[in-house]
Amino acid sequence: MIVDTHCHLDDPRFDEDLDAVMARAKEAGVAATVIPGADPDTLEKARDIAHRYDEVFFAAGVHPYDIEKYDETFLTEFLRDEKCVAVGECGLDYYRLPEDEAQRHEEIAEQKRVFAAQIELAKRAGKPLIVHIRDASDDAMALLLEHGADEVGGVLHCYNADERLLKMADHGFYYGIGGVLTFKNAKKLPRVLPKIPKNRLVVETDAPYLTPHPYRGKRNEPAYTRFVVEKMADILGESVEAVEELTTRNALALFQPLKTAVMV
Q1: Sign of the CA dihedral 91, 41, 254, 226?
Q2: Which helix (H) or strand (E) segment is 110 a member of?
């Protein structure tokens, strides 16, 4: 069985056929799915989906692209829910910073402030973090360490193969591996994957984004975790069954409430 640790089932692209998507996931061996809370505007929808399906859970947080929506009181309401397993996705993303230098500094400072606030929120809630990092490895790692994120740990979502981040395995963090691993032009992640401790590997889709080969270009969905697991097994020299087992056990260690839906 497989756990999809990061899947945006609250995206409108799933509105018309969510039941069918979940049926295909179950048929493919996906035992549980986590919806990251990236946008407060869809958080109620994520919670509703989690309560609609026994095998679906959710997280509450604010993506760095939506930091102007950060409202700690609002998020705290969702963090109390029994099916809320984490804070996030939160983090730093410097990919789309303004070109004006003053505006860049202001944007970076605000992203750091909101990320730090969510690390502290996770510590108070006693829940792990789902961390988004893009072009900001050093700053993100510094904030995680400075604010004691090792108290709760978490996952580096869509791990970017930056080897500097491997040290976070010693601070309670896991590494989310998704469809990028299967891309024909992927070089860095396949090379770095064997360097990640096996007890820190988890699988994700980031659906509807980052669809793995051979369906790249189409909408991603939880059932496609199968292709990620197969590629991981090939690179690591393990059986598919062994990778399923180790990544599922890791996901349950990271998101412990999933144990109510997954029997191993």
Answers
A1: negative
A2: helix 101-125
Task: Report whether pLDDT(70) > 60.
Answer: yes
pLDDT at 250: 98
| Side chain identity at residue 49, one-letter code | I
Distances (CA, A) of 32 to 16, 65, 82, 239, 251: 21, 27, 15, 21, 10
The tokens for 162 are 């930056």
**Angle, CA of 44, 126 and 30, to the nearest 5°:** 60
- Strand boundaries in 76-180, DSSP class E: 84-93, 129-134, 154-157, 173-177
- Which strands form 30-35's sheet, in the order they lie side by side? 2-4, 30-35, 56-60, 84-93, 129-134, 154-157, 173-177, 201-203
Residue 90: pLDDT over 80: yes
* Contact yes or no for 226/233 (Cβ under 8 A): no
What average pLDDT does this structure show over 17-34? 98
- Cβ atoms of 79 and 72 within 8 Å: the answer is no
Peptide bond into 214 cis (omega under 30): yes
Question: What token pair was written down for 21?
Answer: 């998507």
Q: How confident is the model at residue 264 (pLDDT cuts 50, 70, 90)?
A: low
CA-to-CA separations, 14 to 63, 202, 208, 219, in angstroms, rounded: 20, 23, 8, 9
Residue 165 burial (CB count, 10 A): 22
Coil, helix or strand at residue 85: strand
Question: Across 110-244, where does the E strand assignment appear?
Answer: 129-134, 154-157, 173-177, 201-203
Q: What does the pLDDT average to over 169-175?
A: 98
In contact, 43 and 264? CB cutoff 8 Å: no
**pLDDT in the model for residue 260:** 87
